[in-house]
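Chapter review: from sequence to fold.
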Amino acid sequence: MDAQENLQLAQLFNHLELETLDENLYRSAHKNEGWMRVYGGQVLAQALLSATRTVPDDRHVHSLHAYFLRPGDLKHPIIFQVDRIRDGKSFTTRRIVAIQHGKAILNMSCSFQVPEEGLSHQAVMPDVPPPEQCADRKQMAEHFRGRISEALLERFSRQFAVDLRHVDVNSLFDTTPKEPVTSVWFRLNTTLPEHYPFHAHLLAYASDMTLLQTCLRPHGQSLFDPRLQVASLDHTMWFHRPFRMDDWLLYSQDSPSSSQARGFNRGNIFTRDGVLVASVCQEGLIRVHNENKVAAE
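The token string follows.
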């Protein structure tokens, strides 16, 4: 890993770092991350991390359910208030509210469990090319050089702490209608310590990066079309099995439905050898404004 990748990874961890204000009360410690508004994956990850700090080490998160209530302000810190709803013999439940300017921007509930053995089955990982044969962010942008803005080209050409590789090089920018199915490989651009404990909150961070675009594919819409008003409304994750964020993970996504200015998206996350480690669901706002309104704005 070169110096630039080290810098990007340090920036990622800085974005997620929390300052303890009091018991059950935390605050984002550094500048927020995002484009025009705080990136939703940052708030998800920090909310989960704040809850994890109130739970015994022998309990691991198995699910989270979150609602995005307001856009986050990039210029102000976020307060995370944790409510210790229940501490049972096997399960622990927490409720987290993320607050800016005295108002909630995210509401999350999450549940932790002491690991135990039980019945086991899983879905089969789709047959896709390996990550080495898939386009990274910079290669995707270069593929569309001359057809996307210079600002987008520059943005996608930057070094990034998460190595994202799209199976379909056209998935972000092409406006040809396609099936509402897509797959992305991702991993951290570093090797984490062997006993690093916070893979789940890093997965929550990455899980919000590509999911919403899936519901746009059958409509020939690009996520970066200025006529679109797009925002995550909710986000749910289930953590099935152990994994590492510094190993390749496949994010297999589909969208069963879009209607009434909302798009519904699902994702399964597999290890490279086909083990299903997490599942995700998200509904997002997808309003299409006419050209006149966009020009007026």
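Two observations follow directly from the output. Residues 229 and 287 are 5 Å apart (CA to CA). The first strand starts at residue 18 and ends at 22.
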